[in-house]
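Q: Hi! First time doing this. I have a protein sequence and I read that you can turn it into a structure. Is that right? Here it is:
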Amino acid sequence: MTTRSDATTAHLLRRARAAAGLLPLAALALAVLLALAAPSAGWAQAPNQRELDERVQRITDMLRCPTCQGISVKDSEASFSRQIRDKVRRMVEEGQSDEDIKAYFVSRYGEWILRAPKKEGLGLVIWLAPGTALLLAGGWIGWRVYRGRRHPSADLHGAPELTPEQRERIARDLQRFEEED
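A: Yes, that's right. Below is the predicted 3D structure, encoded as structure tokens:
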């Protein structure tokens, strides 16, 4: 016969085992609550830092390294480029816009500092020139092909007819080449 104390002990053991099974679930719930509370508590500074770094990289990629040929400030390891990157970072942290930062560097170094010319004035000509050249070249090639199909002898325009002596010499040369094979 079981006594009351044995039944109580067995009951307590069952409850302890059930509670132990809920422990991982409780830990998971606590982790979710902490993750949701982190942004409001000011713990999540990494995304803001990541956004700042991405913005600095985007701006420094638009600027040309003054000491290197054809390399952006972002990709250059020159000390001058490091100084420019630090200046851009300070300006971003101060809350200046991308346009203000670019205007600052253009005022100090001129339009040359920008890797992509502005799309106005002479810069617009620079942007449109390659496309215009491709269109003109394509049009010229198309015209030449059309003209060649329509007038097959147009390419020989102005070439003199072969004399009988020239024809005979060509025939002899061709015959000699065929005999050598």
